[in-house]
Specification:
193 residues; alpha+beta; Ribosomal Protein S8, Chain: A, domain 1; five-stranded mixed sheet; 7 helices; 5 strands; EC 3.1.-.-; Smr_dom_sf; endonuclease; hydrolase activity
Length: 193
């Protein structure tokens, strides 16, 4: 009687190994950028002036508790679209971190960021504002400001506090209106012939 190894070798005698090709050609990915990276690079080196008509409220900000969930949806935003945003299921095309900024710095940076997103047809972004005071007794100042400011930008159609993997209640997903060019392209793509 033969051992298990002998029996296995006998059964496998006529088997030829399958040639395995690598799944990803790492050489072709080197130096290539995603569309989001290209837009951010263009925005960073753009010689155009930043918008100077910042209309975001500078004072009298209603306080928001540090652990509060931020949620906002303009009329007309489909519930399924909002639910997908809330779950963090959209690709984040741009991000900004407002940590360690003064209220005025954050006001200017967020205003510029939103307008750059609009300029480059960014639909979903992540704004990290933090929760506020570490002892959680005081309202989060930048969180409170962000909640108000995003509502003041008419092109912001919805926002919701992020999932834990993206910063939880210290960050917010933002959805922006589709640009006119993007709407026309979408219409062309889905127009019945």
């Amino acid at each position: 009687m033969s051992s298990d190894e002998d029996l296995f070798a006998q059964q496998m005698a006529d088997v030829t190994p399958v040639e395995v090709k690598p799944r990803v050609d790492l050489k072709t990915g080197v130096g290539k950028s995603t569309p989001g990276e290209k837009r951010r690079r263009q925005a960073a080196v753009s010689s155009e002036e930043k918008p100077t008509d910042n209309y975001l409220t500078a004072n009298h900000i209603p306080p928001v508790e540090p652990l509060a969930v931020l949620a906002f949806q303009r009329e007309g935003v489909q519930h399924g679209v909002y639910r997908k945003l809330k779950r963090g299921n959209y690709e984040l095309e741009a991000t900004i971190d407002l940590h360690n900024m003064t209220v005025e710095q954050a006001r200017v940076e967020l205003f510029d960021f939103i307008h750059q997103c609009l300029e480059y047809d960014v639909r979903t972004a992540l704004v990290t504002h933090g929760k506020g005071d570490r002892n959680l007794d005081n309202p989060g100042i930048l969180k409170s400001c962000t909640a108000l400011w995003l509502k003041e930008v008419t092109e912001v159609i919805a926002f919701h506090s992020a999932q834990p993997r993206h910063g939880g209640v210290g960050s917010v997903y933002v959805m922006l209106k589709k640009s006119k060019a993007a709407k026309e392209q979408n219409s062309k793509n889905y127009r019945p012939d």
